Amino acid sequence: DSWSDYGSRDKPGTTLGRTVPDGNVLFPDIFYTDHLLFYERFSAYQDYILADCKASEVKQFIAEYLEKVLEPSGWQAIWRTNVFDVLVAVVDVNFPALKAVVQLSEPFLCESQDSSFTLECMQELLELKEHQVLLQELFVVYDESGGFDQTALAIEHVRFFYRCIWRTWDEEEEDEFDYFVRCVEPRLRLHYDILEHRVPSGLVADHQNLLSQCEELYEKFLNVRNSISSNDSDSEAENVSMVEGLKLYEQVEHIKQRLKVIENPLLRYVFGYQKYGSLQAKGLRSTGAKVIHVVPWNMKANLLQQLTRDKLCPESCGALEIQFHRDPLAAVSACYEGDRVIICPGHYFVDGMFSIADSIELEGYGLPDDVVIEKQGKGDNFFDCTGANVKISNLKLVQHDAVEGILNVHHGKTTLENCVLQCETTGITVRTSAELLMTNSDLYGAKGAGVEIYPGSACTLLHNGIHHCKEGILVKNFLDEVYEAPRITMVNNMIHNNEGYGVVLVRPAMPSEMKDASAQETTGTFLSLEETPETTKSRFLDCMLHTPRFLDCILLNFEIWCTQPTQAGDEAACAEGSRQEQPGCVTDELELCKRAQTSEQAENNSEIANVLGATSAKKRQIHRKRLSELGFTEADDNLMSQEMFVSVDGNQFKWNGKGSFGIFFF
Description:
This protein has 15 helices and 35 strands.
C-alpha cells in the first residue's frame, strides 16, 4: 500500500515533536506540526492529496485522502476558534464534509476570552452544530505510541491548505487547468519565500492587503449575484444589481490578476511592486536652518579637536547647529534638506533601512575601512535614495541576509565617492529617471550584477573596482518604445574576476536571431565559437539592424558568449611565446605582450561603446518609423534626440569568467 510510506503508522513510536499549548489552562500537549519544510508539504499535496485534480474536485480529493490516513475515532484534540479553546474527544469523522464528530472530554477543560463559556454553554453549542466541527480547527493531542502521527499530519495539511493556499473564488477557476500547478505550487512557494525573508516586506504587505480586498469584494459580488432572481424579469432594481455585479466582478478579476503576478516569482519584482512612490521628502526646516549631525562611536578629546577643526568650524559654518547621535540610522532619519551627517571612525551595526528622500550629505570621517556600517538581520534594501542630490562618501557598507540590493537610486542624483560596498544580492541599482555618479569606489560580492542600469537613467562610473560578482555591469533593455535610452559613462574602471561577463546588455531577441538559434540548437551556442572577434562584432552590429519587438520575458532566453580570448588566456599565450624565444629577446617580447594587452583592452572598450551606440541608434530608427506610421513626416528634434550617450574609455577587463562583454536575449 503506497499510503503506508507516508507518515509513521508502521513505525514503533512517534516521529513527531510535541508542544505545550499557550494559555493558562493546563491542556495536554499537542503534536508539533508547524515546522514542516517546503518539500514535505509540496510532496504531500502533489503525490498524496491533490495530484492532478481540478479546482472543482479539490474537496473530493481531500476527502478521499483523509479516508485513507485518518483514524476515525479514539483520539483527543483541542478545538480552537477565535473565541475559545476546548478539549474534545473524536468519535467519528464525516469525510465528505471534512468534519469530525466530537464530544466534550472529561474533565471539562476550556479557555475563553470571557467566563461565559461554561460546560452547559459548550454542550448547547455542540448540539446546535450537531456535534460536528471542521477538521482544520482540531489540534491533535500528543500520543507517543505513533498511532496518530498520520492523523496529526493529515489535519495539519488540511489546515495549512485552507489557511494559506485555498481562496474562496478558486471553485470558479476553469477546470481545464491543473489546480496544483496553477494555484497550489506558486502560493506554496510564495509562503516559504516570505518565511525565509526572500520577499520585500512592502510586497508582503501589498499581498496581504490585496487578499483582504479581494475577499471582501468577492463576498459582496456573491451577495449581489444571489440577490438577482433567476426569472427573466426586467425590473429596474435587478438592472441596477446587474450593473453593480459587473463592476464588482471586474474589480475582483483585476485584484486576482495582481495576486497572480505577486505569486509568480518571475513577475513579482517586475510588475507587482511600486514601493517608493509615496516616499516624501521633508524639505527645509521651517526656520530655514541646516544642521550637522555627528555620530561618534567613541569620542575622545583629540578626535573632537580634529573634527572641530576639519568639519565643524569652517568659515562658512559658524551659525550651523550641531546634533550628536549614537546611531547612523537615527542621524539620517533626523535629517532635513541640506543637512550633513558626519560619522566618526567605528564599526556600526544597524537593523533597518536608510531611506534618503532629501538632498543630504553622508560622509565618514576617515578612510572607508575605518568607518563601517554593517546591516544586521534580514530585510529589504540597505540604502534607498530618492533625494534630488544625495552624496555618500568615505564609508564601507556591509550587507548580510538581504532581499534586495545594497543601494537603490530611485529618483534624483546620488554621488558615491571613495566608498567600499560589500554586497549580498545585487549591488547598485540605478532606476529609470535616476542618476548615479560613482567614483574611486570598490564594489564586490554581489550574487547578481554589481551595477544594474535601467532605461532612462544616467550612470557615470569613474576609477572604480567592480569584482567578484555574478556579472560586472548589467544594462537593462531600453529598446521598447516606452523607454528612453540611458546615458552611460565608464572611464578607467577595473572590472575583474566576475563569474559571468564584465558588461552585459539585455535586450529582446530579433526574429532572425530566433531562427539562427533554432538552426544551431544542437550545437548549444548562439554564435560559433570559431568566429573571429571582428566577425563577432560585425554580427553584434548586424543584430541591431532588425526590427525589435518586446517579447514575453518568460518564454525565450538566449545568451551570446563572447568569442574574444580572455585576458588570462592572452597572458598565458604571451608568456608561453616568450619562453620559446631567445633570452636576448625577452624584454622585447614582454613589451609586445604589454602592447597587445593594451590594444585588447582598447578593443574591449570600443566594442562595448559600439554595440551600445548601435542599439541606441536602432531605437532612434524605431521612433522615426513610429512617427512616420502616425503621419509625422518631420520629427520633433526633442523627441528624436533619444540616442544613448556612451563614453567607454580606459577600462580594464580581466579574468571575467565569460569574457569582457556579452548580450543576453529574452
